[in-house]
Amino acid sequence: MGTAGALGFHDDSGLLAVSLAAALPGLVGVAAGKRLGTWIPDRYRAAAVDALLSVVGTRLSWTGVTGP
Fold first, then answer.
1. 4, 19 in Cβ contact below 8 A?
2. What is the helix (H) or strand (E) element at residue 63, kind and residue range?
3. What is the pLDDT of residues 8-62, one digit of tens each?
């Protein structure tokens, strides 16, 4: 976010605050993933990642073909 501010993407402090607040769920997700990573076997975690990437890829492809 420092780079975004230096490049002028955050013209006012309100947008910077929103960006900082939006980063919090990502940080919580990383912390939760680290904890769950020790409990969930690699096989199941890899299957979940593959499934989620397939859903996202299919959605992006579908939107690209049919339009928004």
1. yes
2. helix 42-66
3. 766 666 777 787 888 899 999 999 988 888 888 989 989 999 999 999 999 999 9
